[in-house]
Amino acid sequence: MLQAIGLTSTPRRDLPPLVDDLTFEARPGCVTALLGEPGSGKTTALRLMLELEPGRGITYFRGRPLHRIPHPGREVGVLLGDVPGHPSRTVRGQLRMLCAAVGVPASRADTMMEVVGIAGLRDQRLGSLSAGMDRRVALAAALLADPCTLLLDEPAAGLQPRERAWLHALLRGHASLGGAVLFTTADAKEAARSADRVVSIASGRLVADQEAADFARTRLRPRVAVRTPHAARLADVLGREARAAHRAVEIVEESGSRLSVYGSNCAEIGEAAFRNGVLVHQLADETGDAGAPVTPVPQARTGAGGPVKTEARVEAGAPLRAVAGAPAPAAPDARPDQRPAPGGGFRAEQGTGAGSWPVVGPESEGRPSAGARPPHARSEPPASAVRRVGGPLRPLRYELRRLLGTAAPFLTTALVVAVSALTALVLARTGHTPRDRVLAAWPELVPLPPAALGAGLLGALAFGEEYRYPALAADRGTVPRRLGLLAAKLGVCSALALMLGALAVAADAAAVRLVFGRGPLGTWTEWAAPAASWAGLLVGCAWAGVLASAVFRSASAGLAAVLAVPVMVVPLVRKALEGPSAYPAAGFATRLRGLASSPWPTEADTYVLGAFRVMAQPVGAALLLSLMVLLCAYGFTGLRGRVRW
User: Which of 268, 329, 407, 415 lies at a C-alpha separation of 20 to 30 Å from 220?
Assistant: First the structure.
């Protein structure tokens, strides 16, 4: 059971809220349509239900609000807009990554591709899919964890009729297993034939909450669309003939040359136009919305028991509306805010009777009768005060699949190794560059070597892709900040940075040895301290990129923060550290060994001194300072996002 109570969005300046005190429910085993014109607040209502939009009100999913559900992805399947996936990632890679996020086996991705009919597209890129296939991928993602509730925003937008029939058949199948389905639409006919219950809203307020059969009887009715250059004249002719025949006919001027005629048919309108010499460009039967309520026409009696005379009145400045006869009464169970529909019922598209379900594709099979409720296949669990767990349930597996699902790390590595090898050759040719800078391909005038820049870029992409192509939340630009996810990203980026640094050094040494006949490498003890400094620089750049992109929500901002360390922070740190020290640190490693509970080998002093040299150098100190600041900012923003009043 999905229950939305008092949903109200934040008021806008000098404008009413998009959603105002909206209350409705979507029952298990039923498909519910949230119907409204574009701009009526349908999408905002879904975002309020998912706690992605600031406002008031609460939504219960089987008795619990979303922030008190331990694993929201297993309870609610969401489709808001397009598939938020990287265009270069394959369909199978995207779904397997989401499997790690919701904590289900990777084989579930292949199963769902079979269910939605995209098994043959598993190796296709997301950016190359058509609108219909894109919707199928989105539905597969929403159904991965077998959620009880589905929230879909305009799921059939841009689809062909055959694809629409397939989509609604899939939603019907999910509801038949006891799930609750809520989808938004602006098409009244689609809501009538595809849903069991229709919730109509306008300007963010509830208009009607009806069973689909009642909605079709009271809110839909057949009409004739007429296009003529003499709309006012034809409306007057039809009104006079309807009054003469004592028939209930309503004429509404849709535009300057288009009329909608309720209570008549194409033959009668065409004959009336021919008799009176009115040119008609179009006559077509349609099924549309009920429109505004029909005002009863004043009646005048000629005498006791005499015939009733009726007349039509057109107000100046108002849309042309001619009404003849008395309006049909509203349904007995209609609410006061529901509008009567003269003629009653609606025209079925394949010869069904008024008020019956139109037969459109396979979703008509097994449809319950109007007003009937399928049995609840799932019991309502009691509400419990549980802690919400955000982020992926398998963060390390998720991060690895996110990283390896695109070509960005491979292209970055190849570019960094090539640029680093060429730079090392140029530095070795000059003959004035120290050997450690030749191996790192780090000229004096460049703030960071290519490997450090590549590590910072890969770190910035770790969270930058999450905000650009989010997979952990329905909202674009919102990523759950949890320690498990952060630790996985930091660990994976650290390993990737070290691998990138090792490849760059190996390529530099090999290039120098190949060109000049001898390499710059010596014994391992000679390079132990520079190696520790090199590893610290790469890991620090990668971490700075991860944290900065998480705080500023952009990969470019994360890379800019990495570049800001040597360009802006290092000069300040160097200025603070320059000058002689009053307390030299000579013999620090020996004194530290004396404090240890168990003795360590003498060779370990080299690594200890190398690690402290990294922090003592201006770049190392600046990176350490930047990491501390970014980590504090990340923690503050994450804690602030978890506060609930």
Answer: 268
